[in-house]
Model the fold of this input.
Amino acid sequence: MTCKSTALLIAGAARWCDTGRVTGRNLSRAEARTAQIATIKKVSRALIASKGVSGLSLREVAREMRVVSSALYRYFATRDDLLTALIFDAYNDLGASVERADAKASSESAGDRFRIAARAVRRWAKRHPHEYSLIYGTPVPNYVAPVTTIEAATRVPRVLSKILSNAQGVHPFPLNVEAARDVDQFLEVDALEEVLVDVPREMYVRALMAWNMIFGFLSFELYGHYVGSVKNANVMFEKVLDELAALLGL
Amino acid sequence: MTCKSTALLIAGAARWCDTGRVTGRNLSRAEARTAQIATIKKVSRALIASKGVSGLSLREVAREMRVVSSALYRYFATRDDLLTALIFDAYNDLGASVERADAKASSESAGDRFRIAARAVRRWAKRHPHEYSLIYGTPVPNYVAPVTTIEAATRVPRVLSKILSNAQGVHPFPLNVEAARDVDQFLEVDALEEVLVDVPREMYVRALMAWNMIFGFLSFELYGHYVGSVKNANVMFEKVLDELAALLGL
DNA sequence: TGAAAGCGAGAGCGATGCTCTCTCAAGAAA
DNA sequence: TTTCTTGAGAGAGCATCGCTCTCGCTTTCA
Done:
C-alpha cells in the first residue's frame, strides 16, 4: 500500500505512486511541485462545485488525491491560502472569458459589444456559481486581497470601459452635469483613469453603476432573490442591459 | 457546580441556575423556552457580529450561556435551523427599520422618500454587516427559504413600491414602451402586482432594477469591491440614488 | 560523495456538529 | 395528593475538521 520502492517503477514514465508521491526520472522536483499544485486546485474546484465553498476540506482533497492531509501543507500553508489561490484563478478565468468574448465582437456596435461582454459575465457566473460566490459573495473572514488579485479583478471593468471609450460621440441620457463636476471628491479618479481610459468623467458614476448592476443582478439571480418576481432571468437580463445601454448612451 | 438542588433557590425569583437551567416558580415552561430561544439568538447574533457567519459555533454559544452544547439541540435541531431563524429575524429587523424611516417621512416628496428609504437600508446594512451577509450574501448551502421568510423579505420592496405608486403623474425617463409590453413574459406579474400596487407595468423593470441596484451597491461596498475606485461611498450612494430617482421619474 | 532541502506518512491536538443515554424537574391526569 | 408523561440539561462519545510535528526517504546541489 505504501510506496517504499519507487526505484522499481519504470524509470521512463513519470507516474503517480499509490501513495500519491510524484516520481519518475523525467519529472523534476519543480515540475512535480507545479503539477501537485495544479491537481490540488483542480480537485478543490471540483469539490467546491459540488459542495460549495464551505464544503471545501483539505482532508477531502487529500483523500481524493490518495495522499495524507498533512502533505498538502507543503503547498498551501493554510486553507485560506488555498482559497486565495482559487480566488485569484477565478478572477482570471472570468476576466479571460469576457476578454475572449469581446475580442470576437470587435466589429460589433458599442451597444452590442456591451451586451456581449455582459452576457459573457453572466454565462461564466452561471457556469461557475460557486467560484462566482468565491469572488463576489460574502468574503472569507479576515481575507485581504493580495495586490496580484486586485489586478486580476480589474479585467472585467477594463473590458467594459474599453467598450465605453470606443463609443464616444453617442449621446447618453441627460447627464447631471452639476453632479459630475465634483467627481474627484468621492471617486479615486487617478486610479479610475487607468481603467476608464478616454471615458469622460461625467460618465464615471454611470459606468460604475453599470458594472455594479451587472454583478448585483447576478447575485440576486444566483442567490434566489428573484424567485417570485422574475420568471425568465434571461429576458430580464436583456431588459436590464437595454436600460444600462441607454443610461450609458450606447 | 452542577444544579442538583433547585428546590433551595428562592421560589419567588426566576433565575438562572449555574448550569443554565431556567428554574423558579414564576417562569412557566413555555416562558422559559421562549426565553432560552431568545437568548440563544441573542448570543448567536453577538457571535456573528464579532466573527462572521462562519464563526458561529453552537458549542461557543453554549459555552457563553454556561450550558452544555447538546442542550441547544432542544431548541434548534441543527446549526442551519439556527441560521434560518436568524435570517428570518434579520429580514424583519431590516424591514422594520425601513418602514419606520418611511413612516417618519410621509410628508416628504416622492424623491425624498425614496432616498430616505434607501438610506435606511444602507444604514441598517452598515450597522449589521454580518446579518446583511446572512440575507444578501452567499446563501448557506442547501438552504431553502421557508414561506414565512419570503414574506419578511418583501417588506423593503413593499416600502419602495408604495413610494413609487404614490408618485404617479411624474414623468420618468423615456420608457421603452415596446419593451414594457411583454412584461408578463418574463416577470411574475401576478405576484408583483401585490407588491407593486398601483405601479404601471411599464415601470416594473426599472423598479426591480432600483431595488437590485441598492443592494448591489451595498454588497460591493461591504465586500470591498469599491476599494480603489470609490473614495467616499456616502457621496457615491447619493449619486446613485439621483440616477435611480431620475430613472424612476421621482 | 556528502550535506541540504523537499516531500509524504503518520500520530496527535483541540475544536467542530451532532447523537445518545441518563437523570431530574415541571406539568397534566388520576 | 399521587402518578405518569414530557421537557430539559449533563455528559460521554463519534466522525470530521484545520493544523503541527517528527520521521524517513529522495532529489538536488555543492
The CA atoms of residues 209 and 244 of chain A lie 9 Å apart.
